[in-house]
Amino acid sequence: MNVPMRFGMCRPERFWSQSFEGRRELVRQIADHGFDHIYMADHVSFRDGHGSDGFVEIAGLSQMHPTMGIMISIYLLPLRHPLPVARQLATIEQIAPGRMLFGVGVGGDDPHEVEVCGVDPKTRGRRTNESLHIIRALMRGETLDFDGDFFKLSKARIKPAFTRNIPILIGGRSDAALNRTARYGDGWIGVWCSPERYATAVDAIDKAANAAGRTNVAWMHGYQPWAGIADTREEARRLVAKAMENFYRVPFEKFERYTPYGTPDDVAAALQPYVNAGCRVMNLKIVAASDDQEIAGAAQVRSALLKKQRQATA
Protein backbone atom coordinates (compact mmCIF):
# COMPACT_ATOMS: atom_id res chain seq x y z
CA MET A 1 0.00 0.00 0.00
CA ASN A 2 1.46 3.34 -1.06
CA VAL A 3 1.74 5.56 2.02
CA PRO A 4 3.25 9.03 1.46
CA MET A 5 6.32 10.12 3.39
CA ARG A 6 5.81 12.37 6.38
CA PHE A 7 8.60 14.38 7.94
CA GLY A 8 8.66 15.59 11.51
CA MET A 9 11.13 17.78 13.32
CA CYS A 10 11.73 17.90 17.05
CA ARG A 11 11.04 21.32 18.45
CA PRO A 12 14.30 23.29 18.53
CA GLU A 13 16.33 22.99 21.71
CA ARG A 14 16.15 26.67 22.65
CA PHE A 15 12.52 27.09 21.55
CA TRP A 16 10.85 27.97 24.86
CA SER A 17 13.51 30.55 25.73
CA GLN A 18 12.37 32.66 22.75
CA SER A 19 9.75 35.38 22.88
CA PHE A 20 6.21 34.42 21.84
CA GLU A 21 6.72 35.96 18.42
CA GLY A 22 10.10 34.24 18.16
CA ARG A 23 8.47 30.87 18.81
CA ARG A 24 5.82 31.48 16.19
CA GLU A 25 8.51 32.44 13.71
CA LEU A 26 10.45 29.22 14.32
CA VAL A 27 7.35 27.08 13.79
CA ARG A 28 6.52 29.08 10.66
CA GLN A 29 10.00 28.34 9.32
CA ILE A 30 9.55 24.62 10.00
CA ALA A 31 6.18 24.67 8.23
CA ASP A 32 7.51 26.69 5.29
CA HIS A 33 10.26 24.11 4.81
CA GLY A 34 7.57 21.50 4.21
CA PHE A 35 7.58 19.57 7.47
CA ASP A 36 4.34 17.76 8.25
CA HIS A 37 4.59 17.92 12.03
CA ILE A 38 6.62 19.08 14.96
CA TYR A 39 7.15 16.60 17.75
CA MET A 40 8.28 16.43 21.33
CA ALA A 41 9.22 13.62 23.69
CA ASP A 42 7.63 12.93 27.07
CA HIS A 43 9.32 12.27 30.41
CA VAL A 44 8.13 12.56 33.99
CA SER A 45 11.41 12.34 35.89
CA PHE A 46 14.18 11.11 33.61
CA ARG A 47 17.65 10.26 34.91
CA ASP A 48 18.15 13.03 37.50
CA GLY A 49 14.61 14.42 37.34
CA HIS A 50 14.50 15.97 33.88
CA GLY A 51 11.44 15.87 31.65
CA SER A 52 8.64 17.66 29.90
CA ASP A 53 4.98 16.69 29.67
CA GLY A 54 4.26 15.67 26.09
CA PHE A 55 0.60 16.68 26.05
CA VAL A 56 1.26 20.10 27.56
CA GLU A 57 4.02 20.76 25.02
CA ILE A 58 2.06 19.77 21.93
CA ALA A 59 -0.97 21.74 23.13
CA GLY A 60 1.23 24.82 23.28
CA LEU A 61 2.91 24.02 19.96
CA SER A 62 -0.45 23.51 18.26
CA GLN A 63 -1.33 27.15 18.86
CA MET A 64 1.83 28.46 17.23
CA HIS A 65 0.63 27.66 13.71
CA PRO A 66 -2.80 27.07 12.14
CA THR A 67 -2.00 23.88 10.21
CA MET A 68 1.25 22.35 11.48
CA GLY A 69 0.82 18.75 12.67
CA ILE A 70 1.83 17.79 16.21
CA MET A 71 3.13 14.57 17.69
CA ILE A 72 4.24 13.16 21.02
CA SER A 73 7.07 10.77 20.36
CA ILE A 74 7.11 8.92 22.51
CA TYR A 75 4.56 9.12 25.34
CA LEU A 76 5.21 6.93 28.39
CA LEU A 77 1.78 5.35 28.44
CA PRO A 78 2.24 2.81 31.28
CA LEU A 79 2.84 5.66 33.72
CA ARG A 80 -0.71 6.98 33.19
CA HIS A 81 -4.29 5.81 33.49
CA PRO A 82 -5.78 5.28 30.01
CA LEU A 83 -9.07 7.11 30.60
CA PRO A 84 -7.47 10.54 31.27
CA VAL A 85 -5.16 9.89 28.31
CA ALA A 86 -8.18 9.29 26.08
CA ARG A 87 -9.66 12.55 27.35
CA GLN A 88 -6.43 14.39 26.53
CA LEU A 89 -6.48 12.95 23.01
CA ALA A 90 -10.09 14.02 22.53
CA THR A 91 -9.27 17.52 23.77
CA ILE A 92 -6.30 17.84 21.42
CA GLU A 93 -8.64 16.87 18.57
CA GLN A 94 -10.88 19.77 19.57
CA ILE A 95 -8.15 22.39 19.69
CA ALA A 96 -6.09 21.06 16.74
CA PRO A 97 -8.46 18.96 14.60
CA GLY A 98 -6.85 16.33 12.40
CA ARG A 99 -3.30 17.33 13.29
CA MET A 100 -2.30 14.78 15.95
CA LEU A 101 -0.05 11.72 15.74
CA PHE A 102 0.32 9.75 18.96
CA GLY A 103 3.56 7.89 19.57
CA VAL A 104 3.58 5.63 22.63
CA GLY A 105 6.09 3.39 24.35
CA VAL A 106 6.80 1.62 27.61
CA GLY A 107 9.95 3.54 28.62
CA GLY A 108 12.64 1.63 30.44
CA ASP A 109 15.85 3.54 29.73
CA ASP A 110 15.51 4.74 33.33
CA PRO A 111 13.68 2.19 35.54
CA HIS A 112 13.58 4.69 38.42
CA GLU A 113 11.35 6.96 36.33
CA VAL A 114 8.83 4.12 36.19
CA GLU A 115 9.16 3.19 39.85
CA VAL A 116 8.81 6.77 41.10
CA CYS A 117 5.43 6.91 39.35
CA GLY A 118 4.28 3.93 41.39
CA VAL A 119 4.54 1.40 38.56
CA ASP A 120 6.39 -1.92 38.70
CA PRO A 121 8.78 -1.84 35.71
CA LYS A 122 8.08 -5.53 35.10
CA THR A 123 4.43 -4.71 34.28
CA ARG A 124 5.07 -1.93 31.74
CA GLY A 125 4.26 -3.98 28.66
CA ARG A 126 1.05 -5.53 29.97
CA ARG A 127 -0.17 -2.20 31.32
CA THR A 128 0.48 -0.60 27.94
CA ASN A 129 -1.45 -3.33 26.12
CA GLU A 130 -4.46 -2.86 28.38
CA SER A 131 -4.25 0.91 27.96
CA LEU A 132 -4.13 0.65 24.17
CA HIS A 133 -7.13 -1.69 24.16
CA ILE A 134 -9.09 0.81 26.27
CA ILE A 135 -8.03 3.89 24.30
CA ARG A 136 -8.86 2.25 20.97
CA ALA A 137 -12.35 1.33 22.20
CA LEU A 138 -13.01 4.82 23.54
CA MET A 139 -11.73 6.32 20.30
CA ARG A 140 -14.33 4.24 18.45
CA GLY A 141 -17.03 5.83 20.60
CA GLU A 142 -17.78 2.74 22.65
CA THR A 143 -19.15 2.72 26.19
CA LEU A 144 -16.67 0.36 27.77
CA ASP A 145 -16.76 -2.17 30.59
CA PHE A 146 -13.29 -3.55 31.18
CA ASP A 147 -11.90 -5.93 33.80
CA GLY A 148 -8.16 -6.29 33.36
CA ASP A 149 -5.14 -7.02 35.52
CA PHE A 150 -4.40 -3.31 35.97
CA PHE A 151 -7.50 -1.34 34.99
CA LYS A 152 -11.15 -1.91 35.81
CA LEU A 153 -13.72 0.31 34.12
CA SER A 154 -17.49 0.41 34.25
CA LYS A 155 -19.47 2.30 31.61
CA ALA A 156 -16.43 4.38 30.61
CA ARG A 157 -17.06 6.81 27.79
CA ILE A 158 -15.55 9.92 26.21
CA LYS A 159 -17.86 12.68 24.92
CA PRO A 160 -17.91 14.57 22.65
CA ALA A 161 -17.06 11.52 20.57
CA PHE A 162 -13.83 11.32 18.61
CA THR A 163 -14.27 12.50 15.04
CA ARG A 164 -11.47 10.30 13.69
CA ASN A 165 -9.08 7.50 14.54
CA ILE A 166 -5.94 9.26 15.77
CA PRO A 167 -2.96 7.32 14.35
CA ILE A 168 -1.00 5.52 17.07
CA LEU A 169 2.65 4.70 16.43
CA ILE A 170 4.33 2.37 18.88
CA GLY A 171 7.96 2.63 19.88
CA GLY A 172 10.33 0.08 21.33
CA ARG A 173 13.23 -2.11 20.28
CA SER A 174 11.95 -5.45 21.60
CA ASP A 175 9.97 -8.18 19.87
CA ALA A 176 7.16 -7.39 22.33
CA ALA A 177 6.98 -3.86 20.90
CA LEU A 178 6.67 -5.28 17.39
CA ASN A 179 3.83 -7.58 18.46
CA ARG A 180 2.17 -4.65 20.23
CA THR A 181 2.35 -2.68 16.99
CA ALA A 182 0.82 -5.57 15.06
CA ARG A 183 -2.12 -5.72 17.48
CA TYR A 184 -2.79 -2.08 18.28
CA GLY A 185 -0.70 0.27 16.15
CA ASP A 186 -0.86 2.15 12.89
CA GLY A 187 2.91 1.96 12.70
CA TRP A 188 6.14 1.29 14.59
CA ILE A 189 8.75 3.89 15.56
CA GLY A 190 12.24 2.49 15.29
CA VAL A 191 15.24 3.95 17.08
CA TRP A 192 18.85 2.84 17.62
CA CYS A 193 18.70 0.04 15.07
CA SER A 194 20.40 -0.87 11.82
CA PRO A 195 18.59 -0.69 8.48
CA GLU A 196 18.70 -4.49 8.41
CA ARG A 197 17.00 -4.76 11.79
CA TYR A 198 14.49 -2.14 10.67
CA ALA A 199 13.53 -4.13 7.57
CA THR A 200 13.27 -7.33 9.61
CA ALA A 201 11.03 -5.59 12.15
CA VAL A 202 8.71 -4.20 9.48
CA ASP A 203 8.33 -7.67 7.98
CA ALA A 204 7.69 -9.25 11.39
CA ILE A 205 4.97 -6.69 12.18
CA ASP A 206 3.22 -7.37 8.89
CA LYS A 207 3.25 -11.13 9.45
CA ALA A 208 2.01 -10.82 13.04
CA ALA A 209 -0.75 -8.42 12.01
CA ASN A 210 -1.91 -10.76 9.24
CA ALA A 211 -1.97 -13.65 11.69
CA ALA A 212 -4.15 -11.54 14.00
CA GLY A 213 -6.57 -10.73 11.20
CA ARG A 214 -5.33 -7.19 10.56
CA THR A 215 -4.77 -7.12 6.82
CA ASN A 216 -4.16 -4.32 4.33
CA VAL A 217 -3.04 -1.90 7.05
CA ALA A 218 -1.73 1.42 5.69
CA TRP A 219 1.36 1.20 7.88
CA MET A 220 2.95 4.47 8.98
CA HIS A 221 6.21 3.02 10.23
CA GLY A 222 8.62 5.65 11.53
CA TYR A 223 12.24 6.17 12.41
CA GLN A 224 13.47 8.73 14.92
CA PRO A 225 17.20 9.46 14.83
CA TRP A 226 19.33 12.07 16.48
CA ALA A 227 21.73 13.66 14.00
CA GLY A 228 24.49 16.24 14.17
CA ILE A 229 24.87 18.79 11.39
CA ALA A 230 27.78 21.17 10.79
CA ASP A 231 30.23 22.09 8.04
CA THR A 232 32.62 19.32 9.15
CA ARG A 233 32.07 15.82 10.52
CA GLU A 234 34.26 16.62 13.51
CA GLU A 235 32.16 19.61 14.55
CA ALA A 236 28.90 17.78 13.86
CA ARG A 237 30.04 14.88 16.04
CA ARG A 238 31.07 17.21 18.84
CA LEU A 239 27.67 18.93 18.85
CA VAL A 240 25.52 15.82 18.80
CA ALA A 241 27.75 13.93 21.24
CA LYS A 242 27.54 16.72 23.80
CA ALA A 243 23.75 16.99 23.46
CA MET A 244 23.15 13.26 23.75
CA GLU A 245 25.49 12.80 26.68
CA ASN A 246 23.80 15.66 28.51
CA PHE A 247 20.38 14.10 27.93
CA TYR A 248 21.01 10.38 28.36
CA ARG A 249 23.89 10.63 30.84
CA VAL A 250 25.83 7.87 29.06
CA PRO A 251 28.86 8.03 26.73
CA PHE A 252 28.13 8.94 23.12
CA GLU A 253 29.90 5.79 21.93
CA LYS A 254 26.85 3.82 23.08
CA PHE A 255 24.80 5.56 20.35
CA GLU A 256 27.39 6.55 17.75
CA ARG A 257 26.82 3.58 15.44
CA TYR A 258 23.22 4.68 14.90
CA THR A 259 23.71 8.45 14.99
CA PRO A 260 24.52 10.12 11.66
CA TYR A 261 26.53 13.32 11.66
CA GLY A 262 28.22 15.56 9.14
CA THR A 263 26.71 17.68 6.38
CA PRO A 264 22.98 17.36 5.56
CA ASP A 265 23.92 15.17 2.58
CA ASP A 266 25.93 12.89 4.89
CA VAL A 267 22.95 12.54 7.22
CA ALA A 268 20.49 11.93 4.38
CA ALA A 269 22.72 9.22 2.92
CA ALA A 270 22.81 7.46 6.29
CA LEU A 271 19.02 7.61 6.64
CA GLN A 272 18.12 6.59 3.09
CA PRO A 273 18.32 2.83 3.84
CA TYR A 274 15.55 3.21 6.44
CA VAL A 275 13.28 4.81 3.85
CA ASN A 276 14.12 1.94 1.50
CA ALA A 277 13.17 -0.50 4.29
CA GLY A 278 9.70 1.00 4.73
CA CYS A 279 10.00 4.12 6.90
CA ARG A 280 7.19 6.56 6.09
CA VAL A 281 7.43 8.88 9.11
CA MET A 282 10.92 10.32 9.50
CA ASN A 283 11.24 12.22 12.78
CA LEU A 284 14.45 14.26 12.83
CA LYS A 285 16.14 15.34 16.04
CA ILE A 286 18.81 17.65 14.65
CA VAL A 287 21.61 19.13 16.74
CA ALA A 288 23.37 22.16 15.28
CA ALA A 289 24.92 25.40 16.51
CA SER A 290 21.63 27.36 16.56
CA ASP A 291 17.89 26.90 16.14
CA ASP A 292 18.03 28.42 12.66
CA GLN A 293 20.80 26.02 11.66
CA GLU A 294 18.86 23.07 13.08
CA ILE A 295 15.83 23.98 10.96
CA ALA A 296 17.86 24.66 7.82
CA GLY A 297 19.84 21.44 8.22
CA ALA A 298 16.71 19.36 8.82
CA ALA A 299 15.12 20.90 5.74
CA GLN A 300 18.11 19.94 3.60
CA VAL A 301 17.98 16.36 4.90
CA ARG A 302 14.26 16.22 4.09
CA SER A 303 14.81 17.55 0.57
CA ALA A 304 17.60 15.06 -0.13
CA LEU A 305 15.50 12.10 1.03
CA LEU A 306 12.49 13.22 -0.99
CA LYS A 307 14.67 13.67 -4.08
CA LYS A 308 15.95 10.11 -3.73
CA GLN A 309 12.40 8.79 -3.29
CA ARG A 310 11.18 10.62 -6.40
CA GLN A 311 14.09 9.23 -8.40
CA ALA A 312 13.34 5.71 -7.17
CA THR A 313 9.70 5.91 -8.22
CA ALA A 314 10.25 7.73 -11.53
Q: What can you see in these coordinates?
A:
This protein has about 325 residues and is α/β, with parallel strands linked by helices. About 45% of the residues lie in helices and about 20% in strands. The protein has one domain (about 5-225, about 280-290): TIM Barrel, CATH 3.20.20.30. The strands form 3 sheets. The chain has an 8-stranded parallel beta barrel with strand order 1-2-5-6-9-10-11-14, surrounded by 7 helices. It has a two-stranded antiparallel ribbon with strand order 3-4. β12, α8 (about 235-250) and β13 (about 260) form a beta-alpha-beta unit. α3 packs across α5. The longest helix is centred in the C-terminal third of the chain and has 23 residues, at about 290-314. It is globular. It starts with 5 loop residues before the first strand and ends with a helix. The model has no long low-confidence stretch (mean pLDDT about 95).
Task: Supply the number of helical segments.
Answer: 10
Taking pLDDT < 50 over at least 5 consecutive residues as the criterion, the unreliable ranges are: none
Q: Can you tell me the number of structural domains?
A: 1
Strand order of the largest sheet: 1-2-5-6-9-10-11-14
Q: Quote the average pLDDT.
A: 95
Helical content stands at 40-55%
CATH level-3 fold name: TIM Barrel
Alpha-beta classification: alpha/beta
- Our estimate of the beta-strand percent is 15-25%
The ordered string of helix (H) and strand (E) elements is EHEEEHEHEHHEEEHEHEEHEHEH
Distance between the termini: 17 Å
Note the main sheet: 8 strands, parallel, barrel
Query: What is the radius of gyration?
Result: 19 Å
CATH architecture: Alpha-Beta Barrel
Give the oligomeric state.
single chain
Outline type: globular
CATH superfamily: Luciferase-like domain
**CATH classification, class level:** Alpha Beta
- Find the count of extended strands (DSSP E, 2+ residues): 14
